[in-house]
Amino acid sequence: QVSLVESGGGVVLPGGSLTLSCAASGLTFTSYRLGWFRQAPGKEREFVASISKRGENTFYGDSVKGRFTLTRDNAKSTMSLQMSSLKVEDSAVYYCAASPTGTTSYSHWGQGTQVTVSS
């Protein structure tokens, strides 16, 4: 059974940093493109970042470009999202997701972790 488990969420001051992690199990990790999405109350789900199967290519949403860095460790089946210069508008539930080879959609999702940026 595929499982994606996020961790690292919390409360941080504006301008602060936070690192989210996603641990995967039950799948061939290197066969999946990985991504982070977020959803704030009353808003649609938003793409945050994605990373290719071997980690050589990353893509970022315009709102986080230059502030967030996405990496993956295929040996440990984990992914990390380093977030810096956080803004109040970054507050949301963050979800990790996995997209299998040959598709553009994400077939597996985690339960989410809350990030709150507040003074």
Low-confidence stretches: none
Shape: globular
How many runs of DSSP E, i.e. beta strands? 11
Radius of gyration: 13 Å
Q: Give the ordered list of helices and strands.
A: EEEEEEEEEEE
Category from helices, strands and their pairing: mainly beta
What is the strand content? over 45%
Largest sheet: 7 strands, mixed
Report mean pLDDT, rounded to a whole number.
Answer: 96
Number of helices: 0
Work out the oligomeric state of the chains in this entry.
single chain
Q: Helical residue percent?
A: under 10%
The end-to-end distance, rounded to whole angstroms, is: 40 Å
Characterization of the model:
With 119 residues, this protein is mainly beta. The protein is built from no helices and 11 strands. It has strands at residues 3-7, 10-12, 18-25, 32-39, 46-51, 58-60, 68-73, 78-83, 92-100, 108-109, 113-117. Strands 2, 4, 5, 6, 9, 10 and 11 form a 7-stranded mixed sheet that branches. It is globular, with a radius of gyration of 13 Å. The termini are far apart.
